[in-house]
Amino acid sequence: MKAQIIEKDGHPEFAVIPYADYEHFLELIEDEADARAVAEFHADYAAGKAFLVPDDILRRELAGESPVKLWRIQRNLTQDELAGRAGISKPYLSQIETGKRQGTVDTLRAIARALDVPPDVLIG
Questions:
Q1: Domains in the chain: how many in total?
Q2: Which residues are within 8 A (CB) of 74 and not within 5 positions of it... i.e. 6 or more apart?
Q3: What are the pLDDT digits (tens) for 86-112?
Q4: Please, are residues 52 and 62 in contact by the beta-carbon 8 Å criterion?
């Protein structure tokens, strides 16, 4: 790589490099940023600060299924068990799962605690 140095007041001010070299350096910087982000995520996950959503749950939720129902099934809970743990009635839970009712923020937080998931996984 050969750079053209442009001076101002006798001091180097700019370095002009071939465009292909510029693109290469951008890729290296992006790769370094990606590697740093991955390392930070792994550290957070190992420390219990990061939460992963299984691929199957994500795909099914994107297809329109209820995250409450999907996480209940993932945790091997019946509607009766989850409703009891969350302090709500089974019919209310059923209505949330079918989309007939949205559930209050407090209710969804209680369900999230019962499912041991972060509230934003259910609240969105």
A1: 2
A2: 54, 57
A3: 999 999 999 999 999 999 999 999 999
A4: no
